[in-house]
## 1
Amino acid sequence: MRVLHVAAEIFPLVKTGGLADVVGALPPALAALGADVRLLLPGLPAITESVLHPRLVWQGGPLFGAARVAIRLGRMPYSKLPVYIVDAPWFFRRPGSPYQSPQGVEWADNLQRFALLGWAGAHIAGGELDPAWTPTVVHTHDWHAAMTCAYLAANPAATARSVFTVHNLAYQGLFSQGDFGQLGLPSAFLHSHGIEYHGQLSFMKAGLKYARRITTVSPTYSAEIATHEFGCGLDGVIRGRRSDVSGILNGVDTAVWNPATDPSLVAPYDAQALEGKARCKAALQAQMGLAAQPDAPLFGVVSRLTSQKGLDLVLAALPALLAGGAQLALQGAGDPVLEAAFQAAADAHPGRVAVRIGYDETFAHRLIAGADLIMVPSRFEPCGLTQLYGLRYGTLPLARRVGGLADTVTDASDEALRQGSATGFLFGAATPAALESAIARALALYREPARWRAVMHQAMAQDFSWAGSAARYLELYRVMTGEPH
Ligand code: ADP
């Protein structure tokens, strides 16, 4: 089984969210199961600088306005998987994120940049760019790679089957319909059955319409996106593909997220020897300027600060949290209004609320290890990774019952506590009152250390490693192609 993964970011080189974690971990997990896996990535600075032994396999142009485009084949650092790079310096050698300038403004030529990525995916699949290797399955991730599916549908040379994974339906890659001519696609694609979306072009819709199979990153999210509430305007399109849509949970990179071996921690620990976790908590309190109180329940947040993540609810519930004797440690970046609000909360409650604005991978490990709970009160959550990290680190998730959060956390109801299946705390409505009641339940359990520890043990025993999820993807590929593994 030859599989090409097409994506715009990959951990640890370029990361704006969980997508990068998945693209970094799933392909090696598939390779470990015997698949012949390659990657296709844009030639962003961090990628071109890190890929090992790149060699030219194709060059041409002009394409989408780039005078010269080269396709290079090298190997990923770390996983050593083969990787094709779309080397188009005009488009990709820029500072900032893959999608935005350092000032947070979308790059004006994202249509051309990600059309080129998709074009390259479809033409590698057609054997036109590297005749030495053609995939049987092309697996594309989010809107940035979705045009691969449209170009595949338009490329008679390509027989590969396509999978499109929706990591977050809220980011859709919408562009002006007037730019359709730049895509080089037949006019039939500019149709409501194609990539036209209410007078615009939608790259997300290219994936939803033209991929052979659609997956999302959790079973619950795959059902949610077919509803008006979670469908972001595309629920009708998704309902039209219902029998082709399925959900496969993300896994955790257990080499990167392992409290027993994590080099970021002041003291390693595991479920059998939890003393290290208390040292991690003390270190976190000291580093963040929180009062050195080993018995104060410490709530943590590591998150992008966007309305999706529901952190305004945490601000609203903060008085209740503090009244219960708890502390809050947050690391996040994003919406300036939320950044300022959390900063103000920290200023108002020194020693009890601590905030780090910014993105810091190492500190995220320390925060998740040192906290007692990790809060994920998302309005919607395709899968969510931080709650999975929390489970592994014995840091109980307190999360909203949506998407992948509902699929991965077992609420500490009386019955689940009795049965020994509880792993965290879930709440339903996206309201401060519902969050406060989950906080109250968490605080009550925290005051019963033996029962709290039992839930920690249950959480740490959960297996969300990639092997299981990768096997599910491989099965999907097998069903699509009729090939054995
Ligand atoms: P999303 O992709 O919607 O942001 P996920 O939970 O799927 O949410 O993945 C988020 C990833 O980004 C996790 O690996 C999390 O640890 C990381 N992350 C988010 N914000 C920060 C931050 N400020 N510093 C470090 N890591 C962060």
## 2
Amino acid sequence: MTRLLLLGGDGIGPELVEATRAVLTAADDGFDLGLQFETAVIGFDALATEGSTIPDAVIDKARAADGIVLGPVSHNAYPPVSEGGLNPSGLLRKTLDLYANVRPARTFEGYPPPCGQPFDLVIFRENTEGFYADRNMASGTGEVRPDPDMVLALRKVTRKASARIARAAFAHAATRPARHVTAVHKANVLRESDGLFLEEVRRVAAGYPDVTYDEVLVDAMAALLVRSPDRYDVIVTTNMFGDILSDLAAELSGSLGLAASLNAGTDHAMAQAQHGSAPDLAGRDIANPASLILSAAMLLDWLSEKGHGADFAAAARAVEQAVRSSLKDPVTRTPDLSGTAGTRAMAGAISEAVLRAGQSERA
Ligand code: ATP
């Protein structure tokens, strides 16, 4: 039995989690995975009933689960922490030590990319420190206000976190056809912090003679990604640079609605779309569920690597293939990709294809 905790979130979150649950249920039925779903309320709904956007009991459930699926949350609109407005995403990443935020960006055959060229890259974003004030201190916040007209933001870069995100990036690159890693940094200005980050990445690179390696400044990288995203394979970078570049790369691939990600640690992993809660789309059955469905496929792969069985990896491939097929036809893709399907209809088409794939594999 593999226990998955589903957290609905805010805005389009509940719709996306429901769509993802439908696909995971089909994967469970088709591939006999033995999934057990548990749900818990977070976000504004939890604030209203429990006084916190992520009650302690939810964190305990997350710790006990084998994997987590987190719907987008509207944490920018939450009240201050003192009034219960905690960022569930940042808190779970920190509490469960989900140090690697793995963010693929790729084009899909059948849906022509707006940038005109096919590409397939993956960003390994350090997830526990950097400029992110909600997680870079043992307690309190990494932003301080010594006087009303001045704020200091602290950026934390450690050898340990830099080395482990680099190891994750190189280990993954070694499995890909292009076997190339690009470190993205701003060490010409942030000499000490990005200098330390690069030292650790170079140390890890030295242990992978079969993986080629280069380094690019983050500002140049923004331009180079727009110009030729197909030049890149695996990108490893610090927290904020990875956050920004991955949205850019996702949009180049067609839509933020295709942007999957996994927050992975040693013992825990959490599937989470790259985008936010898109309040403009909430409750209208038009949000693209592919981002969270593909994130759940990454979680199935991670569970397979952690010993839950080869069927999990097979199910992940079937989910990816089903998403690819649904993107080919306007009738089974959402309006952000100039399609006509609603969130539920797209998830339904993907679920049916996953179930069929599982049944034919086991026939
Ligand atoms: P938040 O404050 O939670 O970050 P936001 O709307 O400011 O929400 P995002 O949710 O990241 O930021 O989305 C920006 C825009 O991208 C949305 O307004 C929406 O138009 C588009 N978008 C995001 N996610 C999806 C999706 N799953 N399907 C279709 N369009 C999406």
## 3
Amino acid sequence: MLSSIKTMFLILAVTFLLGFTFFYMKSPVFQEIYLDKLNYKMQHKKPIFQRIYPDSQPVEFKNESWRLMNKFPQLSSDQDKNLPECPEIPPDLGPLDIRVVYNTSLPMIISQNPNIRPGGRSRPQHCMAQQKVAIIIPFRNREAHLKTWLYYMHPFLQRQQADYGVYVVEQMEDTVFNRAKLMNVGYATASKDYDYSCFIFSDVDIIPMDGRNLYRCSTNPRHMANSVDKFNFKLPYNDIFGGVVAFKKEHFIKVNGFSNVFWGWGGEDDELFQRVVAVGLKVDRPDQTIARSRMISHKRDPGNERNGKSFPLIRKAYKRLHQDGLSSLNYTIISITSHKLYTKVTVDIGDGEDASLEAN
Ligand code: BGN
């Protein structure tokens, strides 16, 4: 009797342990810890993060005054080639008051930003920007978030004396969302539009809370949103590379862009990080005090459920790198529309049926 109770107890304990291990290994917590370790195994390359510290003293703004001060007028016509170069660090930048905006409208944002040219383009009037920056935003059914993004980001980018254009890339069909592939389409479309040297890949719901977080490229690919309110302004895991990243054109080509095979939420940014490590690049991160960013909270969108297949894909990133990405990108542009505040690219990227083929 006693021994059968013992046996039953043992069987229960073993089952519990096995079950626990199984679910733990499937959980994002375990996978994220594992992702941090992956680089050490893979090619024995240690990811190196370089911190970028701002040189300038922060300037304090009252409420939203910074949005409406047109201190750095941008240009609405052709630029004089003899202008001096803009300074490395634009003057008068500092922490910003960012909230979710409910009471605005596109006409209001347009009237508050008179120097934005069609397609959401702008550049400084009194100096020549050192970089030409394309901002790529993957999109589907997030009008309210886009409005908040435009409301803050046009004044933000103008204050930073940026020569920039905004590209909103919308997945047309009702199939599972593919953020990474939309980023690749944005890159390809913007590149045909203008001689961009720097590409910033941004979610529509992340707004930087400090003007010193320069939306431009640095020596290495740059992880801008490394201090998000949703994660208490800390990194949830060391190798996180999500939200907003900036790539020099030659670096984005070197990593062959994003993978095209990530359908659904999660992992495509971790995979991009593996590509960066695999080609021997480092990652820059602005200091966490200036990288503070606001994420507009929302429920997970329908059609963008967690991608259950991302973990094995991330582990094999270095194997697929040259076959899967910009070099294998196929899509059909439905329309390219020049709105007053952004260029809207509507695209048919398929439905992932061929994903297993692409992944090989
Ligand atoms: C991670 C996601 C990232 C996302 C961050 C922050 C995955 C892959 C399996 C571990 N990674 O869990 O894509 O940016 O959370 O939300 O899902």
